[in-house]
């Protein structure tokens, strides 16, 4: 299959799944009623930030699939997708703050694992995952703060 098509498919799948999960797990009254830290960003920032990150995640996934399909990096990439897509339904849908915290910590570890295992074989992909790592580290801090405050 054409490399360009694989990139488009990965980006579309990641972005599409992310948007679908986001639409079905919108922060509602329950989330609004929670005590949140002073550094909690406004709700409108999450959709554009995640949309950009999902494009990057899809692009990196395609690169890894094309060049290192059987690698530890690919396994970490798949793991981070599972944790990523599990978090919103747990937190916003089921209101499971503690379980969501465990999942986001697992997500953070799998992103770091991807960066560590891919940096020698695909430095660009490792670099592209750094903003994702930073965003999820911040989201982990938010999740932890909300857990402790509620």
Automatic annotation (TrEMBL):
Subcellular location(s) per record: Membrane
Keywords from the UniProt entry: Membrane, Transmembrane, Transmembrane helix
Transmembrane segments: 5-24, 44-66, 73-91, 97-116, 123-148
CDD domains tied to this protein: TSPO_MBR
InterPro entries listed in its UniProt record: TspO/MBR-related_sf, TspO_MBR
UniProt keyword annotation of Transmembrane present: yes
Bilayer disposition of the protein: Multi-pass membrane protein
Protein name per UniProt: Tryptophan-rich sensory protein
Lineage: Bacteria, Pseudomonadati, Pseudomonadota, Alphaproteobacteria, Hyphomicrobiales
């Amino acid at each position: 299959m054409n490399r360009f098509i694989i990139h488009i498919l990965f980006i579309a799948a990641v972005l599409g799944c992310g948007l679908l999960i986001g639409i079905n797990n919108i922060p509602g009254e329950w989330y609004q009623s929670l005590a949140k830290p002073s550094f909690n960003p406004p709700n409108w920032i999450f959709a554009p930030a995640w949309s950009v990150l999902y494009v990057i995640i899809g692009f990196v996934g395609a690169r890894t699939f094309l060049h290192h399909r059987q690698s530890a990096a690919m396994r970490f990439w798949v793991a981070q997708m599972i944790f990523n897509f599990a978090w919103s339904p747990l937190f916003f849908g089921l209101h499971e703050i503690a379980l969501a915290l465990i999942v986001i910590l697992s997500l953070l570890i799998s992103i770091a694992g991807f960066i560590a295992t891919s940096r020698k074989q695909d430095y660009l992909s490792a670099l592209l995952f750094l903003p994702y790592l930073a965003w999820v580290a911040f989201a982990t801090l938010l999740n932890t703060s909300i857990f402790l405050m509620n």
